[in-house]
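Researcher: Re-running this chain for the archive, since the previous output was lost when a drive failed. Same request as before.
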Amino acid sequence: MNEDARRRLEELLDREIEVAHALLGTLADERSALGGSVPDALEKQAAVKMQLLGQLEKLEDERRALSHIASQTLPGARPGAGSTLAAGVAERWRALMEIISRCRSVNELNGYIINTRRGHIQQLLGAVRGVTLTTYTAQGRTFSKSLRALAKA
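Model: Regenerated structure tokens:
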């Protein structure tokens, strides 16, 4: 095993962990912005999130190449013949995967909030426009009910 390459891989994983922590913080800020009424704050957090995701993608490409050179088998990377995972690399990899998992959970929650709000807005717009709503009876059957528009331009 190339010790210099292993050391560089550990440093690269440390950078990935740092960026992943920043992403987790940004996702928390995005969730806060979703609860507020300032669209600019949400746009800012989305831009920062995209930048951090781009950084993570670049670091991942570097990590994959470096793990091959260092003969370090990481999940998702092609293992070299007879390679083993160094303790420092394994510890950093587990930490990175834990942070990424938390990021995924927070991002899914943010997406759920966004989709729920979108649905509410569509319902409100439908009520204003007087569209036909599909509702359910107590027996579970559907029926359509037309609403009058609240206003006409």
